[in-house]
């Protein structure tokens, strides 16, 4: 890897020669600007305003524009005499626990390579000291015309440095959180925890830039003269009718995707059967447009359906009444038959008694 800056780490009275190299690389696909009519490249040329001519890189220097518009030339020699100890030095100012660093401050990342054989011993000493202390080093350094803040930590057997934003460069999250008061109950939190546990962890190495891969397919198709791949239909967005139902369904879906059998809920409820779907739009009665023949037919269909339903309901009521009447009639008949039988038996007993008396 090519170094972009040479200097030294200042660790108390110990100086460690180092080379700064980029720890990351940009893998995104870049495009060129072209003239849409003929495909010609669009280029930006550097032109001197006074002479109205294009100038080369060797003729270009730095200048500071004063408040009155005057340009003050600044040379590399002027910058080399900056009254800063960090001009060519990464000056360690403190050692702090890693969790003291707000991730919002993180900027570009670099590797610090030892600058020669003489730097091997102090470089290794600093690396092992960072490992044993389980801390990170906070340092100041100058790069690309400004003083910066950095954090040194150990990555494998190397020392890495993360550029940090100054604390006053990080904005406070004012007006970002919801203004509406919301209460979250324990059951919702339990379901959210279950969903987090079910989704589990992932190796970051398994993640990749799908957008870049899709873009490469489109470019390859254009180069070969083939039709570009079809764009899949985006998933339909829906409104959450029930947060609990959505969480339960998410947990079940995550378990099924992992081949696990989802546990059946103890009590079935209407909320557990709810789905995340788009709500139908409500039409205002005041702003109802005039109905066309198609809408009238639909209205007629609805009226017919209502009448049919009403008839069916009346039939059911009539059947119920008939059944009740039949039950009453049967009961009366049974009662009369029983009464007659009892009367006959009683008369027969009386007759037998008179005969015996005679």
Describe the structure.
This protein is α+β, with helices and mostly antiparallel strands. The protein is 36% helix and 21% strand. The chain has six helices and eleven strands. It has helices spanning 76-80, 120-133, 186-199, 210-224, 243-257, 293-357; strands at 3-11, 14-22, 47-48, 53-54, 62-65, 71-74, 89-97, 106-114, 135-143, 146-155, 158-164. The strands form three sheets. The protein has a seven-stranded mixed barrel with strand order 1-2-8-11-10-9-7. It has a two-stranded antiparallel sheet with strand order 3-4. Helix 3 (186-199) packs parallel to helix 5. It is extended and about 70 Å long. Residues 265-315, 317-323, 326-333 and 348-353 have low confidence and may be disordered.
What is the molecular shape?
extended
Note poorly predicted spans.
Answer: 265-315, 317-323, 326-333, 348-353
What can be said about the biggest beta sheet? 7 strands, mixed, barrel
Q: What spatial order of strands do you see in the largest sheet?
A: 1-2-8-11-10-9-7
Oligomeric form of this entry?
A: single chain
The sequence of SSEs as H and E is EEEEEEHEEHEEEHHHH
Helix percentage range: 25-40%
Rg of Cα set = 43 Å
Total helices: the number is 6
Keyphrases for this structure?
11 strands, about 350 residues, 7-stranded mixed β-barrel, two-stranded antiparallel sheet, alpha+beta
